[in-house]
Write a structure and sequence with these properties.
GO terms for molecular function: nucleoside triphosphate diphosphatase activity. This is Septum formation protein Maf. By secondary structure, the chain is of the alpha/beta class. The chain is built from seven helices and seven strands; from the N terminus they run E-H-E-H-H-E-E-H-E-E-H-E-H-H. Strands 1, 2, 3, 4, 5, 6 and 7 form a seven-stranded mixed β-sheet that branches. A hairpin with a 7-residue loop joins strand 5 and strand 6.
Length: about 220
Amino acid sequence: MRLYLASTSPARLATLRAAGIEPIVVPNGVDEEAAVRKAEAVSGPLAAADMVLLLARAKAEAAITQAVAAGTHLDGLVLGGDSAFVLDDVIYGKPHTAERARERWHAQRGRTGELYSGHWLIDATDAKSPRGIGVTSMARVSFATDITDDEIDAYVASGEPLAVAGAFTIDARGQAFIERIEGDPSTVVGVSIPAVRQLAGQLGVEWPRFWASPPAP
């Protein structure tokens, strides 16, 4: 069974590969800010859990639409994902700039926030009637209290936190500054492997069918 990943996140790709899956990365072209603005114009401000699920669905559906427009068929399951970090009831996505990343680290040092990851999985094997379902997972992340200003400056200068939700990672340099995670760690990376497995099962696909090769004895 093929799994198509409608995300350009290297962390999501690496996490799926570590789980024994070799997904096919496909473009989605979703303007995330525009999609959120459109939804909020109808229903008002979105909670973090709803926002990441909305964007995950938009990415998965857009990937299929683009494939159809190109005359191809994504014969498998298509996964869209999105993440956001919440601290003091404020939703934080990617900081993009060093200044914002530095401000966020000074605010979250010694604190605990919530990382939400949305997942939308579409069974596209039947091109005429694709089926999609989704779920949002959440994990609490606690940052060390003894992180120095110099460490924050060095981490920001590395460029790593600029393009990730919440301005931190747990699978690279950022893990040194995290004291505790409550919940599924892969949620914090951006794709909860247990959540995707459960979604696949609801679509009638057993998880081992995605494995690229049999597990080593």
